[in-house]
TrEMBL record:
Record EC number: 2.4.2.22
Protein name: Xanthine phosphoribosyltransferase
Protein function: Converts the preformed base xanthine, a product of nucleic acid breakdown, to xanthosine 5'-monophosphate (XMP), so it can be reused for RNA or DNA synthesis.
InterPro entries, per the entry: PRTase-like, PRTase_dom, Pur/Pyrimidine_PRTase, Xanthine_PRibTrfase
Known partners and oligomeric status: Homodimer.
PANTHER family documented for this protein: HYPOXANTHINE/GUANINE PHOSPHORIBOSYLTRANSFERASE, XANTHINE PHOSPHORIBOSYLTRANSFERASE
GO MF terms, alphabetically ordered: xanthine phosphoribosyltransferase activity
Protein family membership: Belongs to the purine/pyrimidine phosphoribosyltransferase family. Xpt subfamily.
Entry keyword set: Cytoplasm, Glycosyltransferase, Purine salvage, Transferase
Subcellular location: Cytoplasm
Amino acid sequence: MQLLKDHILKDGIVKPGNILKVDSFLNHQMDITLINEIGKEFKRRFSDCPITKILTIEASGIGIACIAAQYFDVPVIFAKKAQSLNLDGEMYCSKVESFTHKKVYDVILSKKFLGPEDHVLLIDDFLANGCALMGLIEIVKESGAVLEGAGIVIEKGFQNGGQCIRDMGVRLESLAIIDSMTDDSLTFR
Ligand code: G4P
Ligand code: NA
Ligand code: NA
């Protein structure tokens, strides 16, 4: 998606540890004109799928999912991150290991909001090692819903998440895939 790539090239900042800061338009301040176009693009790419729910994970996926959902005319559900909890059987739960934050957390979603009748599109801002997305995929499996695919705004193609998820047979649509980045250069696939 050219408009997104232009924003990344103009305003993205590469930080040590292979982190791309996109705080000025996606992760802190949000450029709603851009995110609206992102929403339209997800709809265009998944227009053949009978989506009934968009599933994301807190926090930064939520805003993007909500704007995209207007084009699908479906509810957004977001999985919550929890440190440790008393599972009462009313929640789907999976474990996620964050490499960026060096910790393991539980991802939970109420069983009330997802079931076998649903067709799910996953949406998130970043795909790096894919742990967050794997956690969401596990929850969809547990629910019996049909996983139609995943829409990612920025995929870091030099980390292994995208490959793992595609190898699982999941339809993955990333709007920008970064193949390499340094302080002064960034290349897209
Ligand atoms: P993974 O889910 O792909 O395995 O990645 P990892 O656990 O390493 O990522 C942890 C968090 O860092 C995720 O957000 C992920 O979206 C984000 N992230 C990974 N690489 C980058 C990057 O290069 N730039 C930016 N800006 N973010 C990155 P989170 O902290 O779990 O969630 P949120 O609350 O920020 O949404
Ligand atoms: Na995220
Ligand atoms: Na994030």
